[in-house]
Design goal:
binds flavin-adenine dinucleotide, Polyamine Oxidase, Chain A, domain 2, seven-stranded mixed beta sheet, alpha/beta
């Protein structure tokens, strides 16, 4: 029997696993995907890694992330914003604004991408502490342990941490069944950015900077709604990325022509060279069953306000919700993933039976 099973190998699950492993606890982390990182994902080229999931951090106001970046010895750099911003209105008219988004506080990126945090945390675990391609289906509660079942295997532990979005936690089968109110509460929590998709366009050079443009744009017609420069410092190539304004349903309906529509829009905004990237990568998170559910297909208009969800006894004695959407402290963001982890560490350490941390 393990001390702790962590289900989910995104930033939250990995941070918790790395912390638990450091104390010598018998911990195992299970993830349905064939890779670690969850919503953290990169597109790799010879020049480096481009973030297809989260890219921005704000360490000035995110103390846990600041500490993790420092511990991992990683370097940040500011999102490139210098130069004009292009704006495409609902009629398709394009205007140039002299100043860019002016994000405040400025968004910072990581050299090596956000995946560098995943690499750092996973390096603290042994191969037998990580089980990939392991889709958990069922949790059964006993007096002093929890049984975790996949299609072909079974694990037991004294504690289980669900390091995943609440809606995916609601999709598991529980024996005994969860109280209906808890199940409904889990389903009601939107997964941040689960309905989003990112397009990444890679070019030989940042010709938009040479033309006095920042690479930033906003559009009211899409397919992309918000575009930014994604170039890697010192690389001999350059890149733009954009979030889609088109909903998951619109993207699916136009799947065959989506890449052409993105290139055409980049061409309208930044000139003919932009319409012909060396490579175009589209990552649609809304079609990924390990991030999004059918409930996440409705576009979110604003950042939801997250808060911890109380798991009543007896489940609450042994099962803990640990993903980013389980905290009010930067819930939905990378910092939230670390904050949710910290609250688990706190809960477990006050339990005398299990003084792991
Ligand atoms: C496009 C995009 C842009 C974003 N931009 C930013 C940003 O700039 N800054 C920021 O701070 N945040 C951003 N975010 C949010 C950020 O990615 C998340 O807050 C963070 O990655 C959540 O980490 P997590 O570990 O809580 O969850 P996840 O990363 O979702 O990890 C959950 C894990 O659980 C696994 N899992 C689920 N169900 C099961 C099961 N039944 N069995 C086994 N494994 C299972 C999944 O495979 C997954 O690996 C963005 C997200 C997206 C998608």
């Amino acid at each position: 029997m393990h001390d702790l099973i962590i289900i989910g190998g995104g930033l939250a699950g990995l941070a918790l696993a790395a912390n638990a492993a450091r104390t010598g606890a018998d911990v195992v982390l299970l993830d349905a995907r064939d890779r670690l990182g969850g919503r953290v994902l990169a597109h790799q080229t010879a020049a480096g890694r481009y973030d297809l999931g989260p890219a921005w951090i704000w360490p000035g106001m995110q103390p846990r992330l600041r500490a993790l970046v420092a511990e991992a010895g990683l370097t940040t750099y500011p999102q490139h914003e210098a130069g004009g911003l292009m704006f495409e209105d609902a009629s398709g008219t394009i205007q140039l604004f002299a100043r860019g988004f002016g994000q405040e506080p400025p968004s910072l990126r990581l050299i090596g991408g956000i995946s560098a945090l995943i690499d750092f945390l996973s390096a603290g675990l042994t191969p037998d502490q990580i089980r990939l391609s392991t889709h958990v289906e069922r949790l059964s509660l006993a007096a002093d342990h929890v049984r975790v079942r996949t299609e072909s295997s079974e694990f037991t532990a004294r504690y289980v941490a669900l390091a995943m979005p609440p809606r995916l936690a609601a999709a598991l089968t529980y024996d005994p069944a969860l109280p209906p109110a808890l199940h409904a509460a889990l389903q009601s929590v939107p997964t941040w950015m689960a309905g989003q998709a990112k397009a990444l366009a890679i070019y030989r050079s940042s010709f938009w900077r040479d033309a006095g443009l920042s690479g930033s744009a906003m559009s009211q017609i899409g397919p992309l709604g918000e575009i930014h420069d994604a170039s890697l410092p010192g690389a001999d190539e350059a890149a733009l990325f954009g979030f889609f304004a088109w909903s998951p349903a619109q993207r699916t309906a136009r799947q065959e022509t989506l890449a052409d529509a993105v290139c055409a829009q980049l061409g309208r905004l930044f000139g003919p060279s932009a319409a012909q990237p060396e490579a175009l990568v589209i990552r649609d998170w809304a079609t990924d069953p390990w991030t999004a559910t059918s409930l996440d297909q409705a576009p979110l208009r604003e950042h939801p306000s997250y808060r911890p969800i109380d798991w009543p006894r007896p489940w609450g004695d042994r099962v803990l919700l640990a993903g980013s959407e389980a905290t009010a402290d930067f819930g939905g963001y990378l910092e939230g993933a670390l904050a949710a982890t910290a609250s688990i560490i706190e809960k477990i350490s006050i339990n005398r039976e299990f003084s792991l941390f």
